[in-house]
Amino acid sequence: MNVWWALRGATREATSSKRRDLRVLFGRPNPCAAVQPPGDRNSRQDRQKTFVYPTEFAQLVACIDVPLAWREAHAIAAYTFLRPSELRALRWPDVDIDHGRMRINKAWSYLDGRVKSPKTRSGIRDVPIHPRLLPLLRRMREITVPGSAELKGEFRP
């Protein structure tokens, strides 16, 4: 995770929040507004994205020290490219295992802890389920409590 972007974004949200308690906590102006990003922003190396290599991903999802629910969440995220908020809002009625599609039409709001509509119309879409993800989803579906809409797992990305 890019800590600089996360911290700068969080303090920007807090200092411009409608919630007075957050504005008082951080004050005005944003204390991180003038903080420069790490490294030379013009260097080619800093502009390149860091990817997880397939071998690293395989090690992550096979590691027994990582809770199973988190390994499941990472596998779903890696094969579907869902945003963390979309993954958290995903429910079984949105997953069509037989036709290999997921209907993405909502996202989790970390600000108020509720499911909401995506910010834009392009956020509503069908996502194909990769064939390698199907066995995991089938197993998760089998162990889900009957009548439950939530995907089995304790993950909260």
Automatic annotation (TrEMBL):
InterPro entries assigned: DNA_brk_join_enz, Integrase-like_cat_sf, Integrase_catalytic
GO molecular function, one term: DNA binding
Gene Ontology biological process terms, A to Z: DNA integration; DNA recombination
Protein name: Tyr recombinase domain-containing protein
UniProt keyword annotations, A-Z: DNA recombination
Gene3D superfamilies, sorted: Intergrase catalytic core (1.10.443.10)
Organism: marine sediment metagenome
Domain Tyr recombinase intervals: 47-157
Signal peptide: none
